[in-house]
């Protein structure tokens, strides 16, 4: 299949294009490297033995996008590009709404003009907000996220639903990611956040490698087994394979549908730190801090729908996620900047 991937150089994007290249797909990447590195694409090409074709540009540049569609004639699109930092979205809501909605509008209009109506969209478990209890099911009713970043995903799910409703030729997968961590087993590609990481796994990995002094544990008085927050961490390669399963499903199904991509298992902050201690063979200093505003005690997926309809399930456990993340972090202490 000829697949155009926006944000293909990013963390989830790079692992997904690798999976596509390895199964023989023709991959076209559109990326402006706002939060990623071109080195990731070189590494992917090295592993796969073939390269994606790159168009370095903003997805919101509809004229340029039009030219790319005319030249490349993609059959399907996977749309990863977008801003994704929760705290930043609270501080700069306008930027988040304008960027995440604007790029997607430009993409959808261009797809429509070129008769490309197969789309896999990066959504997030954040669409479940804080008024539902884990495990989250896709049919749980009204979606309402608790921050502007999450709201852009809720709104875009709405937009895509209306677009599919208006023209039954669309085939759209809304993939609601839980907490992707880990890295490709080669240790050559992985998560490389700019600045101090917001998320737990890259933070722990950077403490383990000595880039940061200690992990702050955001609260140990939640109503969970050990008092720390519980999340559904999913290996990024399992997540990448979930995208392929969705693309395959869309070959034979019109319309729009949402699927959770998680493992269905919850891991606490302290358990995740312990997994990285095992993987790295190093003690990881950590200290309990107050709760982070807006955090949930628990979030994990009901994975029944993806298992039944996509024939996909996450296969890799937390130990493997920590081992693979550690191979990446220890081999690339400064991320892609080391080159
Ligand atoms: N945590 C810490 N210390 C840290 C960072 C996180 O203790 O330095 C804890 C959090 O309190 C939480 C868990 O670790 O219990 C996971 O936190 P992350 O920030 O890694 O992940 P979240 O589940 O909070 O965030 C995820 C996505 C976001 C957004 C969000 C919606 O990463 O993009 O979708 O869910 O709630």
Automatic annotation (TrEMBL):
Pathway: Carbohydrate metabolism; galactose metabolism
Cofactor(s) this protein cannot do without: NAD(+)
One Pfam family linked to the record: Epimerase
Reactions catalysed according to its record: UDP-alpha-D-glucose = UDP-alpha-D-galactose
Enzyme Commission numbers on file: 5.1.3.2
Keywords for this protein: Carbohydrate metabolism, Galactose metabolism, Isomerase, NAD
Organism domain of life: Bacteria
Keyword Isomerase among record annotations: yes
Gene Ontology cellular component list: cytosol
UniProt-listed GO biological process terms: galactose metabolic process
Gene3D superfamilies listed in its UniProt record: NAD(P)-binding Rossmann-like Domain, UDP-galactose 4-epimerase, domain 1
Enzyme class: isomerase
Gene Ontology molecular-function annotations: UDP-glucose 4-epimerase activity
Sequence ranges assigned to domain NAD-dependent epimerase/dehydratase in this UniProt record: 3-262
Subunit note: Homodimer.
Database matches in NCBIfam families: galE, PRK10675.1
Similarity comment text for this entry: Belongs to the NAD(P)-dependent epimerase/dehydratase family.
Protein name per Swiss-Prot or TrEMBL: UDP-glucose 4-epimerase
Organism lineage: Bacteria, Bacillati, Actinomycetota, Actinomycetes, Micrococcales
Gene: lnpD
């Amino acid at each position: 299949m000829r697949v155009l991937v926006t944000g293909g150089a990013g963390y989830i994007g790079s692992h997904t294009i690798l999976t596509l290249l390895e199964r023989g797909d023709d991959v076209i990447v559109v990326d402006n490297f706002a939060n990623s590195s071109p080195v990731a694409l070189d590494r992917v090409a090295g592993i796969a033995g073939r390269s994606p074709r790159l168009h370095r540009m903003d997805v919101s540049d509809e004229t340029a996008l039009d030219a790319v569609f005319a030249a490349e004639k993609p059959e399907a699109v996977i749309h990863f590009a977008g801003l994704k930092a929760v705290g930043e979205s609270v501080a700069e809501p306008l930027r988040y709404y304008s960027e995440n909605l604007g790029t997607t509008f430009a993409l959808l209009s261009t797809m429509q003009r070129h008769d490309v109506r197969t789309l896999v969209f990066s959504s997030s478990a954040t669409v479940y907000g804080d008024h539902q209890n884990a495990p989250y099911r896709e049919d749980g009713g009204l979606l309402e996220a608790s921050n502007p970043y999450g709201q852009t995903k809720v709104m875009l799910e709405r937009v895509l639903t209306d677009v599919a409703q208006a023209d039954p030729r669309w085939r759209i997968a809304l993939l609601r990611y839980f907490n992707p961590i880990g890295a490709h087993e080669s240790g050559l590609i992985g998560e490389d956040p700019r600045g101090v990481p917001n998320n737990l796994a890259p933070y722990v990995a950077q403490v383990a490698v000595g880039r940061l002094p200690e992990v702050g544990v955001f609260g140990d008085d939640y109503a969970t087994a050990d008092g720390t927050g519980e999340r559904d961490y999913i290996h990024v390669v399992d997540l990448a394979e979930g995208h392929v399963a969705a693309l395959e499903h869309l070959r034979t199904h019109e319309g729009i549908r949402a699927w959770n991509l998680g493992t269905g298992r919850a891991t606490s902050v302290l358990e995740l730190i312990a997994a990285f201690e095992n993987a790295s063979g190093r003690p990881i200093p950590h200290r309990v801090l107050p709760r982070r505003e807006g955090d949930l005690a628990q979030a994990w997926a009901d994975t029944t729908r993806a298992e039944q309809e996509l024939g996909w399930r996450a296969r890799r456990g937390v130990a493997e996620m920590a081992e693979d993340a550690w191979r990446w972090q220890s081999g690339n202490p400064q991320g892609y900047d080391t080159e």
